[in-house]
Write a structure and sequence with these properties.
Layout: H1 6-11, H2 19-26, H3 30-42, E1 46-50, E2 54-59, H4 66-71, E3 82-85, H5 91-100, E4 108-111, E5 133-139, H6 151-167, E6 171-174, E7 178-181, E8 184-195, E9 200-209, H7 227-231, H8 237-254, H9 261-270, E10 277-282, E11 285-294, E12 300-303, E13 309-312, E14 317-319
Parallel strand pairs: 3-4
Antiparallel strand pairs: 1-2, 4-5, 5-9, 6-7, 7-8, 8-9, 10-11, 10-14, 11-12, 12-13
Helix pairs in contact: 2-3, 6-8, 6-9
This protein binds biotin (BTN).
């Protein structure tokens, strides 16, 4: 078969397509077409077949699948190449390998299951199959490595805005880019980069949204939540992924991949860390202060008791009242 698949052809039309036409378009035999139709049906696609008319796709499966995501995708660059993997170690690792092999800027890899999902600061990210939305986006910005720091807050902003719009829930950002509801985390974001001394080769941003989790393991139950737990609604994961990709593209393009004045204002308005007492470690000791702002470079500005303002740009910051 060539690059186009039966699924691509059937999802682009609501008409019947004959087996002969499918075989001719793909350059395969009619037996190969029939075999693929059977395999698609086994994966949950409902494909009607009518003698002398051919095949028609009527129902897409509920689980994450590229054909259903594309139906709601308006973004042109982010998701230009879109794969949904049945199972993978980590979508970030998968996409970094594709990045090293030259895949296009905007390529997205999502997965129904990750068996070694990664979190920030060397942690793991666990999820049962088909329970959540997990994906990574690769971009190739023509910028110097320090300028790529803006991708982190811009991604947090885009994800937070998309979720607010899609669910109506009061999602907020916990600096630098976790998304929370109330005091609990609902989204984790992990950004990785490959760069030469003076140029970025690619940035991979991995996003995990807790969608349908009904109960978290005891050790994180006080810290984590899901869209289902907050709303009692099982959101359509395919539409949700498309909404996230659409918003990411809008935010990246609108702000030229910079933390523009407008993005900084929106980020600040949604940032739940501000105004709280925060602790972080510096030079081997724990520093406590009040989070009072976000710098143009996306750092958290912390005002100490003596009035000194410190800019924090990495590591773990604990904010009082948030997990
Ligand atoms: C964190 O909050 O610690 C970041 C979690 C990031 C999880 C996502 S799920 C999709 C992508 N693939 C990974 O292995 N990790 C990210």
């Amino acid at each position: 078969m060539n690059n186009q698949t039966i699924l691509d052809i059937l999802t682009q039309t609501s008409e019947y397509v004959s087996g002969q036409s499918l075989a001719a378009q793909l350059g395969v035999t009619r037996q190969a077409v029939w075999k693929e139709i059977r395999a698609l049906r086994a994966r949950g696609y409902v494909i009607e077949s009518v003698t002398n008319r051919g095949y028609r796709l009527t129902v897409l499966p509920e689980y994450l699948n590229a054909a259903a995501v594309r139906r709601s995708l308006t973004a042109k660059i982010i998701g230009c190449e879109l794969e949904v993997l049945e199972s993978v170690g980590s979508t970030n690792d998968y996409l970094k390998a594709r990045g090293a092999n030259g895949c296009k800027s905007g390529t997205v890899a999502a997965a129904r299951e990750q068996v070694s999902g990664k979190g920030r600061l060397g942690r793991t990210w666990q999820s049962s199959k088909d329970e959540n939305v997990m994906f990574s986006v690769l971009i190739r910005p023509q910028i110097a490595p320090p300028d790529a720091a803006a991708v982190t807050p811009l991604t947090g902003l885009a994800v937070c805005k998309a979720l607010r719009r899609f669910t109506g829930l009061d999602c907020r950002i916990k600096w630098p880019n976790d998304v929370i509801i109330g005091s609990k985390k609902v989204v984790g974001i992990l950004t990785e980069m490959s760069a030469e001394f003076d140029a970025v080769e690619y940035v991979v941003t991995g996003i995990g949204v807790n969608v349908d989790v009904q109960a978290f393991p005891e050790e994180i139950a006080q810290k984590a939540t899901s869209l289902w737990l907050e709303s009692g609604v099982h959101y359509d994961k395919n539409k949700l992924l498309a909404a996230l990709l659409n918003q990411l593209e809008e935010e990246f393009l609108r702000n030229n991949l910079e933390l523009s004045a407008n993005a900084l204002e929106e980020y600040t308005a949604l940032c739940a860390s501000l105004g709280r007492t925060v602790c972080f470690s510096r030079g081997g000791s724990t520093v406590t202060g009040k989070a009072t702002g976000i710098s143009k470079g996306g750092e958290l500005l912390v005002t100490l008791e003596n009035g000194e303002v410190l800019a924090v740009n990495s590591g773990e910051v604990t904010a009082q009242g948030i997990y």
